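Dear colleague,

Thank you for sharing your sequence with our group. We've completed the structure prediction you requested, and as agreed, I am returning the results in plain text so they can be pasted directly into your records. Please verify that the sequence below matches your submission; if there's any discrepancy, let me know and we will rerun it promptly.
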Amino acid sequence: MMRIQLAFLIAISLVVSTRPASAQIAPLSGDQIVERVSPAVAVILTGNALGELTGVGSAVAVRPDGVLLTAYHVLKNAQQAQVRLKNGEIYDRVELIAWDERRDVAALRITASGLPVLTLMPLSEALPGKPVFVVSAAGALPWTASQGVISAVRLADEVPGAGSGYRLVQFTAPVSPGSSGGVVVDTGVRMLGLILASSPGQNLNFAVPIESVIELANRSGGRTLASGASLKLPFQQSATGSAPQATPPPIELTERERSEMLASRDPRKILCAFRTIYVKSTPMPWMTQEMLENALQKQPEFGAWGLALVRDRRLADLSFDVRVPAFTFDYHYTVMHQNTSIVVMAGKTRAVTGLDGATNVAKNFMKDVKSAGRPLPAALGGKGAQKEGK
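Please find the predicted structure tokens below.
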């Protein structure tokens, strides 16, 4: 009997060892993983009551009957919303059905059916060094992919600004503004986490484990947002937008007056004389350099004062720096005079989205410049330039 069993085991081993390599299950390549994940990821556009775009975020389908998860701050203050799927379908009726403010996660419902849903990855398998992929609307570019590894699973208490009482997955795959609500998956195309925040440097990013918030998808109720049918992605707006309005002629100082004011080391005089601005390109979560540059240019004072943006710091009168600490909605801005390194302005504003943050910072900047005494032309309600001493 023993001989028969031994012969049987040897035969089985020979069959396994001689099985052709093509019969083995090959691991998925990066492009195959992204191809499978992308249909389950949606792009969210949010707007205010006037139909103006206020933010771009991401979401991932967790139920085939139209339920998705996203970062709560993406929809928290939205008046209008629109959801776009990879297959080209656009949904204007968006219902916010549940949220967990501590973890910054929300569940929403659209009138869709048959959504592709990924398998859930247990948090217990999220080991440091394990490869992961991210799919999101990074930089408002839909279905952008990146790759990295899991750095750690840690308590939110260990992460400045994250709050307490829940766990976070720290990962290195790069994310950008618009990635909030995107999904982190492993090489088995299983969804692990929902992207929440990042810190400057692009490789220190955080996601909440989906297994800890999946129950939100089974709730009912909430509120329905107004239709976001008119909302467009930022690059679509610039392509179809109307021609820019004419601005009043700029107020000019003589070169001597300008030079004397810039050399005075007096912040108020510098703010009355500067012409060129350099926006620092330090990576910032949820807001890009271009967002702030566009917000500055949209302020009516920008043209009235004859201001200009420059990409070479050496050509700038002022250097503009904005930082947003991870897990906060605080936009800290500092404006420095390039030649003397004097800080001529510093402040803070709060906003939920990067677009709102950029707009608030730009408005505060112009307000402070006016408070320093820089005159406006009559077309903007001012009395025109006044010579000092008169």
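Summary note from our side: The radius of gyration is 26 Å.

Kind regards,
the structure core
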